[in-house]
């Protein structure tokens, strides 16, 4: 049995996107549901709700509409990889997504936030920060529910993630 995993989730983005949140590779639940951050234990949607001061809809298409209304986009650094299970630590032989084309097509992106260390490291290794062409970027604490080293509480994560507010207010 092959451990190859393909990322079948397209970018959530449009010409008004100012903040692009970049993950590594969707977990098994997210891929099965065809939804970004599909694991209900992931803090992502709760953090977004707190930052936007809005209730997060249950319906996924409404969640995506809420992100777009607020100029927030989503994508992942990895197009395909080998992985057993859902852990980022199990990812190997990753093939990156084409961010060069994405940034050309969507020039209004001002801030790129990497959701966790793996997303940041894969971007750095395979894509390079020069493709950001002067855009601000930051490595954020992972919203993943998977325990690991340097785990922050929800409130600590929320405080860090609020860095996007100033960009969204512009």
Structural class: alpha/beta
Strand order of the largest sheet: 3-2-6-7
| First and last CA, distance | 49 Å
Unreliable stretches, pLDDT < 50, 5 or more residues?
A: none
Largest sheet: 4 strands, parallel
| Alpha-carbon Rg, integer | 15 Å
Q: How much is the average pLDDT?
A: 91
Strand content: 15-25%
Number of helices: 7
Residues in helix, %: 25-40%
Query: What is the number of beta strands?
Result: 7
Provide the descriptors you would attach to this structure in a database record:
170 residues; alpha/beta; four-stranded parallel sheet; three-stranded antiparallel sheet; 19% strand
Explain briefly what this protein structure is.
The chain is of the alpha/beta class and 170 residues long. It is 34% helix and 19% strand.
């Amino acid at each position: 049995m092959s451990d190859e995993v393909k990322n079948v989730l397209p970018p959530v983005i449009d010409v008004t996107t100012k903040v692009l949140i970049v993950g590594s590779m969707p977990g098994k639940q997210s891929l099965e549901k065809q939804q970004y951050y599909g694991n209900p234990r992931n803090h992502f949607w709760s953090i977004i709700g707190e930052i936007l001061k809005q209730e997060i809809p249950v319906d996924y298409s409404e969640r995506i509409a809420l992100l777009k209304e607020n100029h927030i986009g989503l994508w992942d650094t990895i197009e395909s990889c080998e992985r057993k299970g859902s852990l980022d630590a199990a990812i190997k032989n990753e093939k990156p997504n084409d961010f060069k084309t994405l940034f050309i097509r969507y020039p209004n992106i001002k801030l790129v936030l990497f959701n966790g260390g793996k997303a940041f490291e894969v971007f750095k290794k395979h894509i390079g920060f020069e493709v950001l062409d002067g855009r601000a970027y930051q490595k954020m604490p992972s919203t993943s529910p998977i325990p690991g080293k340097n785990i922050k509480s929800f409130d600590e994560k929320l405080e860090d993630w609020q860095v996007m507010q100033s960009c969204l207010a512009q």
